[in-house]
Structure formats: structure tokens, C-alpha cells
Amino acid sequence: MVVDGVEYNVSMPYEAGTLQEWDDTVQSWCNAGMTLLVAKDHPRAADPEWVVATLVRGVGERLATTLDRPIVYHRTSLPIKPRDFVRTFSYLRDNK
Length: 96
Fold this sequence. Notes:
Blueprint: E1 2-3, E2 6-11, H1 18-22, E3 33-38, H2 48-67, E4 71-77, E5 84-91
Antiparallel strand pairs: 1-2, 2-3, 4-5
């Protein structure tokens, strides 16, 4: 699904371990994954701080609240060097 120049891809494979086969940085207990792809022509595409601090954080926090469970963000892949690096952040549900 594409919304405002950001593509959202969600994967929840039927077989345990499939996410880890696709990406060996995924934690063993993880059973769902999501990828956010920012279009090259998106006004903030060249702003990695916005991507991580605003887009990823906002989606992570909303998912944690909606699903009532922690969401772990573990990697950023950007068109700048270093292109792909592991980060670990946990987003917790909003207790409002």
C-alpha cells in the first residue's frame, strides 16, 4: 500500500523462522515484519533523521498502541553510507 509517497509492506509468514531466513538480523521470536519504502521524489526522501525520528517512530508507536504490544525497530537501510545498519529501538503502546 502506498500513502503519501511511502510504501508500507507487511509480512506475517505462516511458517515460523521464515522472517529469519529472509533476514538473519530478525530476532528469533519475531513473527511479523514491516518495511517502509520512501519514494525518491518524496519531499523528505533525503532526510534520514526525519525518516527514523518521525516516520518510523510514528508508525512504530501507532502499531504498538493498536496491537497493544511492543514493536521493535531493528534496521535502517538508506541511500547514503552506511547504507544498511542495525539499530534497535522498542516502541511501546501509548498509555493515554
